[in-house]
Amino acid sequence: AHRYALAVGSPVFKTNFEDRWSAEKLKLTDSSKLLIPIANYTAEGFSEMLRYVYYGEVELSESNVMEIMYLSEQYDLPGLQVNCSQYLNEMLQANDVLHCLLNALEKGDEKLQRQCWEVICKKTADVVASDSFLNVTQQLLYNILRRNDLRIRELALFKAVDRWAEHQAGRQGLLIEADKVGHLKRRVLGDQAIRLIRFPLIPQQQFIDEVLTRDVLLKDEILDICKHFS
Question: Helix (H, G, I), strand (E, B), or coil: what is residue 30?
């Protein structure tokens, strides 16, 4: 009964049952049992796919949608692919796109990576204002700052980066004394992040009022930036 249900639900299962899987490969234990080897997928993800095959239902989440998408492609389940695509489209909003990008990077899904970057570049201000931005890795932060097509003013971008640094420093238990906050944030950011921010694009008075007061720049850096204002 199970073989029949799987064969009806998925052409791939049907083909495997009928043609390609020999008794030796499948390691038949008796005449009624057929062992299906599963690699590269979690038991939870595979079980969720089977639930769709049997009942036409699936519970998608940020943690399983990518795996179930790949399973739906491998086992030729177009209806499940549609469900996953719709869920991913909902995820590709400012609040969730960074999490989706991390999943795409982990899976090596270049198409989804491009889609995520399109959202990040078009909705940069909303993305960096989201809570998920505060938890991105330092390397992903650098990758964002390297982009030349971000739709955000440089001052707003700097403020978001400053918030990220303060959040990360707090997570690491580094924010102890108020007079050392700037130094600690700079330590978390690293020199590369500072170099990637285009400070000369910030109006001079805003630079004085909004950037210098955060104490993340070194004296030599301040002098170099001020040369662009003169």
Answer: strand
Cα–Cα distance for residue pair 149/58, rounded to 1 Å: 37
pLDDT (tens, 9 = 90+) of the chain, 230 residues, equals 455 455 545 655 555 555 554 554 555 555 455 566 667 788 899 889 889 888 889 999 888 888 898 888 888 888 899 999 888 888 888 888 998 899 888 878 888 899 999 999 999 999 999 999 999 999 999 999 999 999 999 999 999 999 999 999 888 776 556 567 888 999 999 999 999 999 999 999 999 999 999 999 999 999 999 999 87
In angstroms, rounded to a whole number, what is the distance separating the alpha carbons of residues 121 and 129? Answer: 13
- Measured CA distances, 189 to 83, 147, 161 (Å): 39, 17, 8
Q: How far apart are CA 64 and CA 51, in angstroms?
A: 14
- Which tokens hold the place of 220? 């030599």
For residue 187, CA distances in Å to 7, 166, 168, 198, 225 come to 58, 10, 10, 19, 20
- The SS3 assignment for 33 reads strand
Token code pair at residue 53: 């095959």
Per-residue tokens: 186: 């700079």
Taking the C-alpha atoms of residue 95 and residue 92, their distance in angstroms, rounded to an integer, is 8
Q: Which amino acid is at 7?
A: A
* Model confidence, pTM: 0.74
Distance CA 193, CA 227 (A): 20
